[in-house]
Amino acid sequence: MMLRTCRVLYSQAGPSAGGWQPLSFDGAAFHLKGTGELTRALLVLRLCAWPPLVTHGLVLQAWSQRLLGSRLSGALLRASVYGQFVAGETAEEVRGCVQQLQTLGLRPLLAVPTEEEPDSAVKTGEAWYEGNLSAMLRCVDLSRGLLETPGTTGNILMQLKVTALTSSRLCKELTSWVRRPGAPSELSPERLAEAMDSGRGFQVPCLNAEQNQHLQSSLRRLQQVVQHARAQHVRLLVDAEYTSLNPALSLLVAALAVRWNSPREGGPWVWNTYQAYLKDTYEQLRRDAEAADRSGLAFGVKLVRGAYLDKERKVALLQGAKDPTQPDYEATRQSYSRCLELMLTHVSQRGPLCHLMVASHNEETVCQATKRMWELGIPLDGPVCFGQLLGMCDHVSLALGQAGYAVYKSIPYGSLEEVIPYLIRRAQENRSVLQGARRERELLSQELWRRLLGGA
């Protein structure tokens, strides 16, 4: 049975006369996937919906290695969680995964799985950040090289985690100064952009000598990644993190935007991520969009609901601070909807100078986005794209891809030792997403029963 699709005709004058027809997220597109893939997806998603497994994942992994041995434990992980959520370890395995996605109308958004450990001397030293720099540069090359595989191309996108290149301690220190009324003039996007470009010694008076040295090295690493990505025509989507870090991350992104998001560069090459579950996100997004417009800069946004809800609330409670998160699900839904409407309006007004990724697993949100795109005359394969995690929400991703929208899957890759701790921490941060995948599990189960019973 063919999917009902939403055909959007690009027109500056507005929507086509044919009327808007919603996408169908009924799992019909699962016919594009093999029975083995669907079976694994159902089993893994059911496991991930079990809270004790997510909470104690690292401990259970350690026990598995002790009881079964590294080889058997690794084989089980590769056949289950790793195989569901990870593209592979080698470039060839990643290419194979991406080729499979392309046949389904989906595109890759590669992510290097790095996890800073503030209490570890090894994972906070300059050598570790330099190693991450090399990994990021290789990821840029791999992202660019995936164009050689058959299928649609469009924008080449890649995720960038700033705390892989600069310490979270420095980001917290910068955040504390950025939030003050009398922040040093050196902590402006323009001054930081100059420092990135010049490569000369740069001193911020509120930082000590060690912090200034680390900041200079961090600016050099960030500049090097974006410069290489620009040369390879890869656009970088910077991950959002905790509220104790985000103001510093936004400052660094703004500095990179001053240098690399000008229209003459063909920007935006650096996009920031905005978390709708934070109370101040809409106003921050509005200010940033208007500032980019006034400065004549291209503007790129990845819009997410957010993944650190429980941690943010606990930290606020412990510190006696105001809770920065929305009070409930409905408030978060409304926040996301307002941010989405704001950005789609900017896209319709600024065209290729404004790009948006609607990063959501929510069917209602996706429907809102596709309908507003039609009403505003935004093309299916234009400045707006959609994003979901590899191995999740395939009933939405496949429906979008088959209808002709630009859909990206966030794809971590690397060895078991690198990726499994990363996956477990992401699962702990995205508990609500994993536990909320009930509809996807139901659709997978229905499709498997249909095949088992030989249904048409």
UniProtKB/TrEMBL annotation:
Gene3D superfamilies: 3.20.20.220. GO terms for cellular component: mitochondrion. Residues 202-435 form the Proline dehydrogenase domain. Its cofactor is FAD. It catalyses: L-proline + a quinone = (S)-1-pyrroline-5-carboxylate + a quinol + H(+); trans-4-hydroxy-L-proline + a quinone = (3R,5S)-1-pyrroline-3-hydroxy-5-carboxylate + a quinol + H(+). The keyword Oxidoreductase applies. One of its GO terms (molecular function) is FAD binding. Its EC number is 1.5.5.2. Keywords: FAD, Flavoprotein, Oxidoreductase, Proline metabolism. SUPFAM superfamilies: FAD-linked oxidoreductase. Belongs to the proline oxidase family. PANTHER family: HYDROXYPROLINE DEHYDROGENASE (PTHR13914:SF29), PROLINE OXIDASE (PTHR13914). This is Proline dehydrogenase. The gene is PRODH2.
